[in-house]
């Protein structure tokens, strides 16, 4: 199962490390980056809940989740292959919509599949192992360009549009890897056959997009308390990660390589350095995700997640003040702890508080709690003049003074706020502690 998830997350890693620079190579300025990256949050907002509700109601010969795995994998591979061939900002932005649609069609069923295949007492381990493979996949995605340069490719060898050929090679590898691993995963780990009760429930449920939308609306109205509380944590957590992914390369370019010119060799070095640092923190998340398994059983996913988010917030606060490449890897440890926890512990809290029959739709709605903060972040931070209309509030330019270091400091503060807010979610604590708290309250 996790091998297919590795291919999917390799695609996400390529986006995180390269979309900002690709836009810059094609002529976009830094203040425009959040709005140009809206494809991810908007497709996630629209696609994942809908796919979740539809997959919960699917009972065909190919299974509940498999049809969505396959369609998403093809779209993802196509988007990855074409992206480095972009000749304009508009073309790159359009292809990002295709790529993110494919990623989101595949992502939601993979989350639900863990719950489908595992018993409740196994899900914490299941989601943390999925988090580990996220770290491994993104580590490989971020590190591959530096490996290509290390074996002889020129980092300054660019096409007519300024996009390095290292980007073209690694995106082509990503297209092959994502499609091949997802197909292998589907073949080697077929879905469990539906029980008679499950099949009867699906057959009795209304079909079609209208029924799926009604299901989403009803699920939101009856959302479990734990899931509602996780919404505040998600607001801070994903706003912080959005800003970090978009602007960390630009911060490194200024503090370590003393450049703001996206077409300079020094900026190419900053992109590679960010890839190496991101590979390192994803390696940290890969290792620590397994180490978290006994800890989460002892103290619960909520308090553990709070500790990891705090470490990540402190790391982001430190990054803009570091001018030596080697020292960048110290705060990256904290970012790695946070990322490893983000991809596992909130899902462990969530799946133990939602009804199994609605796993798909609630996974989709939980993704809305990821993409809405990213959408708000884009509108608040960015500024895009289309001539006939201006989009965004322009906080990055007018309040943060177009300084990526100020952005990273803000992201660090937001991650610390997320750490404090997750402690409000009692359902993420061990049962014995929850019972003691309830007795004390009584």
Automatic annotation (TrEMBL):
Signal peptide: none annotated. It is found in: Membrane. InterPro entries: MFS, MFS_trans_sf. It is a multi-pass membrane protein. Keywords: Membrane, Transmembrane, Transmembrane helix, Transport. The chain crosses the membrane at residues 35-54, 66-83, 127-153, 165-187, 230-247, 278-296, 328-349, 361-381, 407-425. SUPFAM superfamilies: MFS general substrate transporter. This is MFS transporter. It comes from Novosphingobium pokkalii.
């Amino acid at each position: 199962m996790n091998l297919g998830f590795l291919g999917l997350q390799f695609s996400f890693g390529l986006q995180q490390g390269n979309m900002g620079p690709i836009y810059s190579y094609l002529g976009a300025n830094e203040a425009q980056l959040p709005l140009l990256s809206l494809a991810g949050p908007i497709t996630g907002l629209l696609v994942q809940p809908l796919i979740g509700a539809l997959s919960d109601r699917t009972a065909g010969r190919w299974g509940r989740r498999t049809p969505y795995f396959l369609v998403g994998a093809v779209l993802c591979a196509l988007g990855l292959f074409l992206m480095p061939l972009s000749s304009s900002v508009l073309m790159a932005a359009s292809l990002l919509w295709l790529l993110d649609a494919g990623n989101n069609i595949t992502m939601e069923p993979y989350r639900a599949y863990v719950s489908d295949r595992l018993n409740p007492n196994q899900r914490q381990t299941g989601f943390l192992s999925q988090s580990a493979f996220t770290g491994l996949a993104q580590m490989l995605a971020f590190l591959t360009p530096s490996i290509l340069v290390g074996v002889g490719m020129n980092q300054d060898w660019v096409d007519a549009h300024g996009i390095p050929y290292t980007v073209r090679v690694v995106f082509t590898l990503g297209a092959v890897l994502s499609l091949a691993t997802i197909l292998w995963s589907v073949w080697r780990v077929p879905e469990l056959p539906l029980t008679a009760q499950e099949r009867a429930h699906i057959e009795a449920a209304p079909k079609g997009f209208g029924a799926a939308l009604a299901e989403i609306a009803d699920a939101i109205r009856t959302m479990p308390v734990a899931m509602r509380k996780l919404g505040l944590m998600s607001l801070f957590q994903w706003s912080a990660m959005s800003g970090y992914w978009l602007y960390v390369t630009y911060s490194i370019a200024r503090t370590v390589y003393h450049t703001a010119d996206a077409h300079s060799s020094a900026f190419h070095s900053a992109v590679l350095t960010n890839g190496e640092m991101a590979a390192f923190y994803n390696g940290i998340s890969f290792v620590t995700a397994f180490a978290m398994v006994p800890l989460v059983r002892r103290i619960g996913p909520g308090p553990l997640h709070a500790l990891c988010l705090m470490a990540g917030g402190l790391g982001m606060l430190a990054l803009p003040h570091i001018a030596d490449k080697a020292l960048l890897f110290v705060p990256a440890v904290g970012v790695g702890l946070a990322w490893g926890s983000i991809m596992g512990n909130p899902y462990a809290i969530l799946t133990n508080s939602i009804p199994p029959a609605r796993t798909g739709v609630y996974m989709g709605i939980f993704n809305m709690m990821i993409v809405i903060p990213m959408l708000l972040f884009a509108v608040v931070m960015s500024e895009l003049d289309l001539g006939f209309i201006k989009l965004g509030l322009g906080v990055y330019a007018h309040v943060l003074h177009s300084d990526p270091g100020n952005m990273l400091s803000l992201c660090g503060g937001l991650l610390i706020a997320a750490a404090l807010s997750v402690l409000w979610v009692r359902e993420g604590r061990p049962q014995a502690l929850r019972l003691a708290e309830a007795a004390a309250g009584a």
